[in-house]
Amino acid sequence: MTPAVGQRYTFRRLNDTTFDSYIQFIGGKAPLGSPKCGFKGQLCSTKTNNSKFIIAGAVSIFTIAVIAIIIIVYKQIQYERNLDTMAWKIPSSEIDIKNVQARSSIFNSSIYSTDGDNEQSGSKGVSLKAYQNSLNDTEASIAKKKVFKKRTVKKAFGDSKNDEWINIEKWALGKYKKELVAVKKLCPTDFKLVRDIKKEITQLTKMRNEFLNNIVGLVHEPPKLFLITRYAPRNSLKDMLENPDMRLENMFIVSFVTDIIKGLRFLHQSPLGFHGNLKSSNCFVDATWRVVLGNYGMVKLRENEPCENDSDLLWTAPEILRSGNKKVSMTKAELEKGDIYSFGIILYEIYGRNGPYNNDITPYRDIVEKIKFPKKNTYMRPDLAGIEKAPSAVKLTCESCWNENPDERPKIKRARDMLVPITEGLRSNIADNIMALLDRYKNNLEDVVKERTAALEEEQMRTERLILQLLPAPVAHALKNGEKVEPEHYSSVTIYFSDIVGFTALSSQSTPMQVVELLNDLYTMFDKIIDDFDVYKVETIGDAYMMVSGLPDINGLNHAGEVATATLRLLQSVYTFKIRHRPDDSLQLRIGLHSGAVVTGVVGVKMPRYCLFGNTVMVGSSMEQKGAPLKIHVSPDTKGLLDELGGYTLEERGYVEFPRRGKLKTYWLIDDDPMVRKARLETESKHYPNLKRGLTAFMD
């Protein structure tokens, strides 16, 4: 241990005796008499030295940047290793070829094909019958082939298994990892598996979507070069459209269009950004009747393939044709716009079912030349007369998609929105045909049940709303619950009756349809007006209109005021009402009001009606009959209630004879005071909530 440094101190005793001694301090220095910054920190500067923090921050940023660079470099190295390992490369020995002859002979011009054989022969497809006959022939050929395999000797590629690959002309059906796959032959010249092609294949094999015919991998064993994709057993869309025996319901047509749009949307939003070779022969129908898009991308992979036949160029956009169909030199945005053009042609083809140009007799080469080089702004496009029966939304979308100017073509999302009208009403069609036509939804029954349940609930709500318009809410709910509706007595209500003066003569001079339109227009207007009042419309019979207030929800004495004010508004509306077929004529409405006691009840079972009974009903009807055109005839009972409520102006008419009541002094209702009514409603609505409806008019 190193001895502490000491200092000499001299001590003097009281008796003047002195001696020397050493005191050892840690660090070799004596402690200070006070803290460096003072006991309260007053001796130090208040400014903080931030240099340490700056240095720490810089070091942190540098460290993060180094880590990020390391991660990026590591990922790039991993990516390059993945490219070199070529995980998508499939040995041909792992694929069991199941069928060669039938598929290559039947679908050489459609399924997975880019080469249009016999383009001018007029052959537009094959029927399902021919396809099935071919399958039957194939079984025999396979049996013969098995016998032949046993006898054959190794040839140029080694053994009989290689012979199967040699015999593939276009494509074949195979089995890979217990799954059926399509084996498509590629024919590029001078093919080299360079880095760009590896990147392209890696990207394509990683893309997965239910509306794509997903690429499984590539067989590259020179001279073998085959693309392996998912197998779609229901042929291509082109085959299906050209097959006269295949009857397609509208449900299928709309579904096909929707599926193509979904597939294109995915491609356009993906890193790939385009399809690049969209046509009906590259749209396949899988086992669930879903259209999946195939042969997408592969611009570099198929760059050196022989030129396509003219028949395969009918779906290609003009700007791509003018570039010599060199898609490798085009941008993603340009190829995306080319896809939209192709989609427009396919849409036309789906609804026309006569090929992309409606079986035009013009040679394909001439059509392609006219597309590439239009003369005097005359553009070669399919004739819309070929889809004359198609919805207008389809025609408009077709024209927009094949616009000569690529920038004016809609995005696929916009095209989808333009086609929304064709999907209207499709749900009910699916409900009628779901079990018979769509095995596509066999695994989605739960979703279908939910949709049907939601539709049923919506229908029930609609029915309930209709019942509530025909019957008072308490009565409707009671009938809905199977309860018996007992007759009820109401001690005081106000009843409104009205009819049209001269209606019989007017009807005789009008057609039945004109009479219906007249009454419908008039009473629809009345119904909207009385929505702002606590009244209940009882019924309309011919030109007669009846309503009541004070039932089924009581509102004190306010029923007289509600009916009176509503009547004034109805009469006011009649002055401006126009008869459609006789605009120069005006209606003469005659109205009667009466207040008193009534009994209500529901009459009938099949068509229940809510009816009012009692002398009050009879007197109210008589008040209307003994009234005058465009006047409101009021009984003394109603007049007394209005006087009690206040705010109403009435004029005495005189005495009128009534059955069972003798002579009664009656009145004309002239006007009301809105402010008095508002004040009354604000007070009374606290006790009778239904009166709040009347306050909404004042808020407006």
From TrEMBL:
Keyword hit for Glycoprotein: yes
One Gene Ontology cellular component annotation held by this UniProt entry: plasma membrane
Keyword Zinc-finger set for record: no
Location in the cell: Membrane
InterPro entries linked: A/G_cyclase, Cyclic_nucleotide_synthase, Kinase-like_dom_sf, Nucleotide_cyclase, Prot_kinase_dom, Ser-Thr/Tyr_kinase_cat_dom
PROSITE patterns xrefs: GUANYLATE_CYCLASE_2 (PS50125), PROTEIN_KINASE_DOM (PS50011)
Transmembrane segments: 53-74
Name this protein carries in UniProt: guanylate cyclase
Species of provenance: Plectus sambesii
Lineage, top ranks: Eukaryota, Metazoa, Ecdysozoa, Nematoda, Chromadorea
